[in-house]
């Protein structure tokens, strides 16, 4: 037991210069450039997503208007529709036929 307490503990010593392992100004500048690029990319992505969302909303509104117009045309009364007789090729021709 006495042998364990007598062994000296090694103390760490500085073998590398702390100034040579720090990022310094170059590292700071690189991080700032990356940060600016990320912010610009996020800004551009949000703009593009917003534009797609607006186009989708406009497309939905146009589809709804077209569906409403089709529903209005489908509910027209029979009096508004032209009369088609058997053998009539052109329903717009309501005049007398030549003999």
From TrEMBL:
Keyword line: Membrane, Transmembrane, Transmembrane helix
Transmembrane segments: 20-43
Positions of region (Disordered): 58-99
Stated name of the protein: Uncharacterized protein
Highest classification ranks of the organism: Bacteria, Bacillati, Actinomycetota, Actinomycetes, Micrococcales
């Amino acid at each position: 037991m006495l042998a364990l307490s007598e062994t000296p503990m090694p103390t760490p010593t500085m073998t590398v210069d702390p100034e040579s392992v720090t990022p310094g100004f170059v590292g700071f500048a690189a991080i700032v450039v990356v940060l600016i690029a990320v912010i610009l990319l996020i800004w551009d992505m949000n703009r593009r997503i917003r534009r797609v969302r607006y186009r989708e909303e406009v497309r939905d509104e146009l589809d709804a208007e077209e569906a409403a117009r089709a529903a209005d045309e489908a509910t027209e009364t029979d009096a508004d529709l032209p009369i088609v007789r058997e053998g009539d090729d052109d329903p717009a021709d309501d005049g007398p036929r030549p003999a």
